TrEMBL record:
Top-level taxon of origin: Bacteria
Domain DUF218: residue ranges: 50-178
Signal peptide: none
Biological processes, Gene Ontology terms: Gram-negative-bacterium-type cell wall biogenesis; peptidoglycan metabolic process
Name of the molecule in the record: YdcF family protein
Pfam families linked: DUF218 (PF02698)
GO (cellular component) term, any one: plasma membrane
Top-level taxonomy: Bacteria, Pseudomonadati, Pseudomonadota, Alphaproteobacteria, Acetobacterales
């Protein structure tokens, strides 16, 4: 039995609603995400047990080291550091004496992705019984960083400390937004990572 023409047309028009609603949700989510990409840290920063820096852009390492040097945390991890970088180089770039930071700073060399950062930071935080953690990364990267860290550190208070807040390019924001959606659906688990040492 065939459907009347009017029913077929009504059904076809309803089928177009699904992609239209999905597109509106994605665009609305992107607009919200773009607003978050200009987030700024709370000032003055409250002390936390630790500071975690996710490398990959300017201002991140310097900000984390300054927070440690100013007594805003007891411990610092810089996750995703190049295997050839050492604390002395990083401290010199930040304009700080490495001796004052050495005993309280860990350089994580294992992570090669945001998911890897989450695992590396969790391993470090659990070994120090950290209950509160200030997270330093670019503002546009913060939502995905917090998502991955919440998966690995469910009982730890995470306080965002965004840097690089001056409006990144639209193409970069779009790529990061798509990565965030992928991470929400667990697709970040598909990229292999070295285990933390």
């Amino acid at each position: 039995m065939s459907l009347p023409d009017g029913s077929r047309r009504g059904r076809a028009s309803r089928l177009w609603l699904v992609p239209a609603v999905l597109a509106l949700l994605l665009l609305g989510g992107f607009a919200f995400f773009t607003g978050q990409s200009r987030g700024r840290p709370d000032l003055p920063p409250l002390p936390t047990d630790g500071v975690a820096v996710l490398t990959g852009g300017p201002q991140r390492v310097e900000t984390g080291m300054r927070l440690l040097a100013e007594g805003k945390a007891r411990w610092l991890i810089i996750s995703g550091v190049s295997p050839v970088a050492d604390l002395e180089d990083l401290a010199r770039t930040a304009g700080l004496p490495p001796e004052a930071l050495a005993s309280r700073t860990t350089l994580g060399h294992a992570a090669t992705s945001t998911r890897g950062n989450g695992k590396e930071i969790a391993h470090w935080a659990q070994s120090r019984q950290i209950r509160s953690l200030r997270v330093v990364t670019a503002a546009f990267h913060m939502p995905r960083a917090l998502l991955e860290l919440r998966r690995t550190l469910p009982g730890v208070l995470l306080i965002p400390h965004p840097v690089q807040t001056e409006g990144p390019r639209l193409a970069l924001l779009a790529r990061e937004y798509l990565k965030l959606i992928g991470a929400m659906f667990g697709l970040s688990a598909l990229s292999p990572e070295k285990p933390p040492s």
